[in-house]
Design a protein that fits this description.
Number of helices: 11
CATH topology: TIM Barrel
Strand content: 15-25%
Largest sheet: 8 strands, parallel, barrel
Low-confidence stretches: none
Order of helices and strands: EHEHHEHEHEHEHHEHEHH
Bound molecules: SN-glycerol-3-phosphate
Radius of gyration: 19 Å
Structural class: alpha/beta
Number of domains: 1
Number of strands: 8
Distance between the termini: 37 Å
Helix content: 40-55%
Length: 217
């Protein structure tokens, strides 16, 4: 399963990228706002840092404008995935840009039927938002399982990119279901390495090592 980082914070991306855990990056208008950066500038920097797909989102609502924005974003770097919302205009944009050879990430997906439409439009990625479904007392991970089944039933190659990830359990469940990608905020990705027994074991090893009086370096 691939890990994407869900942020436009270049320092956070660089820190995680150095561990080899970053297979791509996702951004959205809210994350661009949070970064305080110009979308074209920061996206270019991210694309230079990370080899894998970097999602950059269009902000128009009409297909013609979305397509023009998508083409402009795609010119930033070859690893841009143009992100479009799951509306009919977004699906038309997806079909057009996919036919032109661009990667497209269809976002704001909240149902299996929406995911089916995105796959039929040729999306490279579908982004179901699990955390926001959990927020309204539905089970976001049930949707991931349903999309996995539907895509496997028909051999769709659209990759399931689990988004709105809030916890390490979302990551585990995504891996068990067989999602292709999880995009998570840096803080969630960092927590994946945490375990109290690792901390306790390391503390015991360090205490014993100090008693040996030895050094390796
Ligand atoms: O990848 C989409 C993500 O940025 C949305 O997350 O936590 O705002 O629902 P959240």
């Amino acid at each position: 399963m691939k890990f994407f980082v869900d942020t436009a914070d270049i320092d956070a991306i660089a820190e995680l990228n150095a561990t080899g855990m970053v297979d791509g990056v996702t951004t959205n208008p809210s994350l661009i706002l949070k970064s305080g950066r110009d979308i074209l500038e920061v996206t270019k920097e991210i694309c230079a840092l990370v080899k894998g797909p970097v999602s950059a989102e269009v902000v128009s609502l009409e297909a013609d404008d979305m397509i023009a924005e998508g083409r402009k974003l795609a010119r930033i770097a070859p690893n841009i995935a143009v992100k479009v919302p799951l509306t009919w205009a977004g699906l038309k944009t997806c079909k057009t840009l996919t036919d032109e050879g661009h990667m497209v990430n269809v976002t704001l997906c909240f149902s299996a039927n929406q995911a089916l439409l995105a796959a039929k439009a040729g999306a490279t990625f579908i982004s179901p938002f699990v955390g926001r479904l959990d927020d309204i007392n539905l089970d976001g991970m049930d949707l991931i399982g349903d999309i996995r089944t539907i895509y496997d039933n028909f051999g769709f190659e659209t990759q399931i990119l689990v988004a709105s990830v809030r916890s390490v359990n979302h990551v585990t469940q995504s891996a068990l279901i067989g999602a292709d990608v999880v995009t998570a905020p840096p803080a969630v990705l960092k927590k994946l390495a945490d375990h109290p027994l690792t901390d306790a074991g390391l503390a015991a090893f360090m205490a014993d090592w100090a008693k040996t009086g030895q050094k390796i370096l």
